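Homework help board

Subject: predicted structure for assignment chain

Our instructor gave us this sequence and asked us to write out the predicted structure in token form, then describe one feature. I got the tokens but I'm not sure how to describe them. Can anyone check?
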Amino acid sequence: NAGFAVEHAVGPEGAFQQVGWVEGAGTTTEAQSYRYAVEDLSAGTHRFRLKQEDLDGSTSLSKVVEVDVRPDGPIAIEQVAPNPVTQTSTLRFTPRESGAVTVGLYDVLGRRVKTLHEGRGSGGQSQQVTLDASALSSGVYFLRVKGEGFSKTRRVTIVQ
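My token output:
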């Protein structure tokens, strides 16, 4: 074979993207061993597969392998994107343990403006909430993710 494209997708439904290439050993009847390392994965579910390319250009896909990366602390929170927000934005979080999780939007005075999520978080599973800013005034707000034993906050700016 010519080699293998290493493909990666974030979450259970993310699109696969090539993150690396491993040269093949050509045509051989002997078993071969290949290695590729992916570093700095965010907490949550990651999927990997190999796309084998033969010397004639034909390709085949391997089975998908899922890996759950647990956060170092009680919860991992990614940045709000996009930020500043004009219409909608998303926040992805991954609790280390299963349990109740609330995501709220607060103004600069600490008043809850909106509850975006109230329910259970699955340990090691990434979850995403969407902030609809269409009915909110321009300004600085704070998204707080709170559960048993943790509370983390991300600043968000809304521009109308």
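Reply (TA_rk): Your tokens look well-formed. For the description, you could write something like this. Residues 3-69 form one domain. That's the kind of observation they're looking for.
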